[in-house]
Amino acid sequence: MYPKVKPALARAWRDLQTVQFGVTPAHAVVLGPVDTATGSLIDRIDGTRGMDRLRAEGSGMGLPEGQVDALVRRLAAAGLVDDATAGGPQAQAVRKRPETLERLGPDLGSLSLVHREPGGDLRGVAARRRLRVQVRGSGRVGAMIAAVLAGAGVGRVEVLDGGRVEPADVAPGGLGPGSIGRLRAEAAARLVRESAPGRAPGASEREGPEGATALVVVAPRDGLQSWAPDPGTAADWIAAGTPHLYAGVLEGTGLVGPLVLPGVTACAGCMERERIERDPAWPRMLVQWRSAHRRRATAACDLGVATAVAGLAAAHALSFLDGELPASTAARWEAALPGLHWERTAVRPHPDCPCAAASLAAEQEPSAEQEQEVRP
Question: Could you tell me the residue range of the domain that residue 110 belongs to?
Answer without folding.
Answer: 88-125
